[in-house]
What does this fold into?
Amino acid sequence: MKNRMEIEKKRVAGVSVIAAFFLTGFKLVIGLLTGSLGLLSEALHSGLDLVAAVITWFSVRISDTPPDKNHHYGHGKIENFSALIETFLLLITCAWIIYEAIHRLMSGDTKIDVNIFSYIVVLTSITVDIARSRALYRVARKYNSQALEADALHFSTDIWSSAVVLLGLILAQFEFYFADSIAALAVALIVLGVSWRLGKKAADMLLDRTPAPLVAQIESLLNQAQGILRYHDLRVRTSGAENFIEVTIHVQPGLTLDAAHEISHQIEKQIVLALPRSYVHVHIEPDEHLPEIVAEEIV
It folds into this structure.
């Protein structure tokens, strides 16, 4: 199962790198030939896409490496770190696009040469981005990969930014040349929105912010579990695609060690079935504060 997951994640990340390399070169050549800021901003955007895709490709290769003596919780955080780097790259893109667009609008130097290749490169970009964002989303959701999800979100917004550039080219065809610079500014605003969402999620993961949806799901399972009188000190942290869960439960006093262990085992099993790739630690206490029984198991 894990080997299949690693192969699928590496494959989709590798295809994304190839697509980003192709689109970057195509947009750059046509952008330079036409002088379109919209296309050049898209070329720079795709260039950073390429860097981000390469980072993602490396991160998914490393993130599934088993825990070692220096990384007891595995290497999943590399995916979160990768997403944060991608956020900074997107912000750099925005800064350049906004500066260049405002400069052109203020100077009045907005004229561009629109030709058939301008339309071909944008339509090709939209088609490729639709295909790779769908593939990335599918694998990201299947294996709970934040690095792939970041790439998928990134490329899905590329579709909208390319559509904005396409509109700018159409208006420029009718000599509304300023529309190209306006389109570039719109691209920058779209990228800023993506950056905020990616950066916030990556930072939350790296700072071990409590994942509220996961906590609610685990609490629901604990409330339905048999043999638990009450529970407390539920702690959840995520690292890449993996969840680390700790909880203390109270059971009837006088239970044998085997009976207490069976209760903890069933809880762990239910949580892992609902949340694959979870590591669960259950601490058991008798409800009347008799000598405690500790049962723990890593699933």
Remarks:
- Confidence is low (pLDDT under 50) at residues 290-299.
- The chain has two domains: 2-206, 212-286.
